[in-house]
Design goal:
Layout (H helix, E strand, L loop, with lengths): L1 H8 L6 H7 L10 H11 L10 H16 L9 H14 L10 H15 L5 H12 L7 H9 L9 H15 L5 E8 L6 E9 L2 E5 L7 E6 L5 E5 L8 E5 L4 E5 L3 H20 L4 H121 L5 H35 L6 H59 L15 E4 L2 E6 H18 L1
Antiparallel strand pairs: 1-2, 1-7, 2-3, 3-4, 5-6, 6-7, 8-9
GO molecular function: DNA binding
InterPro entries: EF-hand_SWAP70_N, PH-like_dom_sf, PH_domain, PH_SWAP70
Keywords: Cell membrane, Cell projection, Coiled coil, Cytoplasm, DNA-binding, Membrane, Nucleus, Phosphoprotein
Length: about 550
């Protein structure tokens, strides 16, 4: 009987012979679920083509299981509403056996029902319920979900009819793929009269019926990517008109008000857009996204648990290592105690030895202080010499200031001398720094005396090297002064030579003259440009020529 009814509902031809052949050798009593499943998969489900009424199939399955599993306690919903909740559960449940609906999908379903009732969603109440649910199990079975909705826990203040209408609305949307439904007027194609029809919008079709009980169907409007919908102006006494254009027909429809008209236009346009894009209905696509998100979160949770296990194992290993280290430290502490005893004994012996060495150190320190005083006196003399050199540097600087306008050789010599004097000043500053360091070494503790003595010897050597460099700088400065005197003499000789040449040119007749800065008197202008001599010079030359001419005559 079960096999025959399944074949009838699924539009599959029933084969009684195959049934008898399959169960011929089974004489052990009633067939279990696991025993019937191979026959169901091979001879019934594999032959299903998809052209069957899914609601009738669900009703048959409901008939088989409801009587045994449905709660006997009174509920606020009817058996028909319980059936619809059961079908919705099958749609929203996880794809594993036994079927359960997780808290996220329960929240989604209860929100849809609450919105359909026009009530406010109580998020805080559901959060408390979710916490209590998570502590005990992962989700609810179909019968527990029916008890939850039928108990009215999340629909307090609503009557049975309101809850039933909300369940039906959610059932139509999620199971029957009803995107929108309602009464509107439709214009006939033959008699051109307007009739009220109940329209039902689905992902690829708009069906219209005589009334909302869906018993008498009057026609369908097949939707595809080529369809379009547009608003029409009011005419013939009809308002809120819009037009649905398909490939073969055009349908004129009048909504009850402007709001309904706009809602229907937007719903149909959205449906056509989904058809063009080849997308699933919104609620199915949303369910798939929620499922993918849960799978992603579950994978992340599993990865986190794996990492926690690894960390716990690593922590246990660390604890073992720490225990081993603790034991090693205890053994090391025991060894350290023995060594401490030995160290104290050695320390007593060393103190006596250090007392003798300390006396010797005091004598050595007195000698070092005397040597430091002697070196300080020598350093004072050296500083006096440096001050004298500074005075000489100032005098030389004044002489160089007077000779700023000298030629390039004189400038080169001056720069060289200035550089040497700067080096001398740097050396002097370095010597003063060493002097201060030597004074600080006197104040150091007794434990550092030996090291400071070595440093002082090194600094004395550096002081000697610096004094030699200072002497070298003095020699270089003297050489620079000698070079300066030589350059000065050369300049004087060049000046004398220039003066003698100017005298010769002044007595020489002709156009040759020494190029020198001209006078401020105006120059003569010739056909070839400015003349090489002034008007006064021209008159002087004319008088000279006239005198020579008179003498010759």
């Amino acid at each position: 009987v079960l096999s025959h009814n399944l074949c009838t509902v699924l539009n599959v031809p029933h084969d009684p012979v195959a049934l008898e052949e399959h169960f011929r050798d089974d004489d052990e009593g009633p067939v279990s679920n696991q025993g019937y499943m191979p026959y169901l998969n091979k001879f019934i489900l594999e032959k299903v083509q998809g052209n069957f009424d899914k609601v009738e199939f669900n009703r048959m399955c409901w008939t088989l299981c409801a009587k045994k599993n449905l709660s006997k306690s009174p509920l606020l919903i009817s058996d028909e509403d319980a059936f619809k909740v059961w079908v919705i559960f099958n749609f929203l449940s996880e794809d594993k056996y036994p079927l359960i609906i997780v808290p996220e999908e329960i929240e989604y379903l209860l929100k849809k029902i609450t919105e359909a009732m026009g009530a406010g969603w109580q998020q805080e109440q559901f959060d408390h319920y979710k916490i209590a649910l998570n502590t005990s199990r992962e989700g609810l079975s179909a019968w527990e979900l029916i008890d939850l909705i039928g108990s009215g826990q999340f629909s307090k203040g609503m009557d049975r009819q309101t809850v039933s209408m909300a369940i039906s609305e959610v059932f139509n949307e999620l199971i029957l793929d009803v995107l929108k439904q309602g009464y509107m007027l439709k214009k006939g194609h033959k008699r051109k009269n307007w009739m009220e029809r109940w329209f039902v919008l689905k992902p690829n079709i708009i069906s219209y019926y005589v009334s909302e009980d869906l018993k008498e169907k009057k026609g369908d409007i097949i939707l595809d990517g080529n369809c379009c919908v547009e608003a029409l102006p009011d005419k013939d006494g009809k308002k809120c008109l819009f037009l649905i254009k398909c490939l073969d027909k055009t349908f004129e429809i009048s909504a009850s008000d402007k709001k309904k008209k706009q809602e229907w236009i937007q719903a149909i346009q959205s449906t056509v857009s989904l058809l063009r894009a080849g997308s699933a209905p919104p609620h199915k696509e949303a369910r798939q996204k929620r499922k993918e998100l849960r799978q992603k979160l579950q994978a992340e949770q599993e990865e986190l648990e794996r990492q926690m296990r690894e960390l716990q194992a690593a922590n246990e290993n660390k604890q073992k290592e720490l225990e081993t280290v603790r034991k090693q430290l205890e053994a090391a502490a025991a060894r350290a105690a023995e060594e401490e005893k030995k160290r104290l004994q050695t320390q007593v012996e060393l103190q006596d030895r250090f007392s003798l060495e300390l006396e010797r150190e005091k004598m050595v320190r007195q000698k070092m202080e005397e040597q430091v005083a002697q070196k300080s006196s020598e350093l004072e003399q050296y500083l006096q010499r440096v001050r004298e050199l500074e005075e000489m540097y100032k005098q030389l600087q004044e002489a160089l200031e007077d000779e700023k306008q000298a030629r390039q050789d004189e400038e080169t010599v001056r720069k060289l001398q200035a550089r040497l004097l700067e080096e001398e000043t740097a050396k002097r500053a370095e010597l003063e720094k060493w002097h201060l360091q030597q004074q600080q070494t006197i104040q150091m503790t007794e434990a550092e005396k030996q090291e400071l003595e070595n440093q002082r010897m090194m600094k004395e050597q550096a002081l000697q090297v610096a004094m030699e460099q200072l002497k070298q700088l003095e020699l270089e400065r003297k050489e620079a002064l000698e070079q300066y005197e030589e350059v000065k003499k050369k300049l004087e000789t060049a000046a004398n030579n220039t003066k003698s040449w100017k005298d010769k040119v002044a007595h020489h007749e002709g156009l040759i003259r020494l190029i020198e800065p001209g006078s401020k008197n105006p120059h003569l202008i010739t056909n070839w440009g400015p003349a090489a001599f002034t008007e006064a010079e021209l008159e002087q030359r004319q008088r000279s020529w006239k005198g020579k001419k008179a003498t010759s005559e």
